[in-house]
């Protein structure tokens, strides 16, 4: 019986227990989001084009999707020749593996300054702004590291009230899967950033249509 305890501390205890339970997936942590600096010498022009989602951290709402691709293009072609950093148009495509239906989300990413790999991402389609802000797709995104030619590590983190934070990792590849040496390079970089590669699951990329 908890008869002696005020309600407030019981609620606090309960949320603590919930956070510890979630901490098994490591997507939730106490305190603020860790602060990663922008990737040094980040070159926006070199991340343009087509990427496949090869691995990502577990995220329940995405459990049914597969064959996810990302396409990055300059939002305004003129900006690319004038500035080293510019706004991106982003298309994220995937397939619902239960219904087989394709799904396309269009958005744009605005870099926080002229050299930063940290971007503010918003959907332009499907959702009104208010709803889009609640979805995991909108918010601050960061290219933690990329070699431009094989892989890119994309990361996003948001606070959950005052209780803690939740973050997501996407490993994008120029091909649907990695060669062994590329994968071990990716994992090395993650470990140096104190991100646990154990959190990643291989994306569902079997029997994907060529066009996506
Ligand atoms: C960025 O990459 C583009 C395309 O490879 C290249 O032309 C440009 O010189 C690079 N910019 C810098 C500052 O290195």
TrEMBL record:
Question: Does the record bear Metal-binding in its keywords?
Answer: no
- Stored Gene3D superfamilies: 2.40.128.20
Q: Where is the Lipocalin/cytosolic fatty-acid binding domain?
A: 72-203
Kindly state a single biological-process term from the GO annotations of this entry: cellular response to starvation
Q: Which GO terms describe its molecular function?
A: lipoprotein particle receptor binding
> Record's InterPro entries?
Calycin, Lipocalin_ApoD, Lipocln_cytosolic_FA-bd_dom
Q: Which residues form the signal peptide?
A: 1-27
- Report the coiled-coil segments: none
One GO cellular component, as annotated = cytoplasm
Q: List the keywords (alphabetical).
A: Signal
Query: What family does this chain come from, according to its entry?
Result: Belongs to the calycin superfamily. Lipocalin family.
Q: What is this protein called?
A: GM20309
What species does this protein belong to? Drosophila sechellia (Fruit fly)
UniProt gene name? Dsec\GM20309
């Amino acid at each position: 019986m908890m008869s002696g305890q005020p309600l407030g501390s019981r609620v606090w205890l309960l949320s603590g227990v919930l956070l510890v339970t979630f901490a098994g997936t490591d997507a939730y942590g106490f305190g603020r989001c860790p602060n990663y600096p922008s990737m040094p010498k980040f070159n926006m022009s070199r991340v343009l084009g087509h990427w496949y989602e090869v691995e990502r951290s577990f995220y329940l709402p995405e459990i049914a999707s597969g064959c996810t691709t990302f396409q990055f293009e300059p939002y305004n072609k003129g900006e690319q020749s004038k500035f080293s950093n510019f706004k991106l148009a982003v298309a994220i495509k995937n397939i619902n593996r239960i219904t087989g239906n394709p799904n396309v989300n269009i958005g744009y990413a605005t870099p926080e300054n002229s050299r930063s790999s940290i971007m503010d991402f918003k959907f332009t389609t499907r959702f009104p702004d208010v709803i889009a802000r609640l979805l995991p797709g909108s918010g601050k995104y960061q290219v933690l590291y990329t070699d431009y030619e094989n892989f890119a590590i994309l990361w996003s983190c948001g606070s959950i009230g005052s209780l803690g934070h939740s973050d997501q990792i996407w490993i994008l590849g120029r091909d649907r899967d990695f060669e062994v040496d590329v994968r071990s390079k990716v994992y090395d970089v993650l470990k140096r950033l104190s991100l646990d590669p154990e959190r990643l699951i291989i994306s569902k990329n079997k029997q994907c249509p060529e066009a996506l």
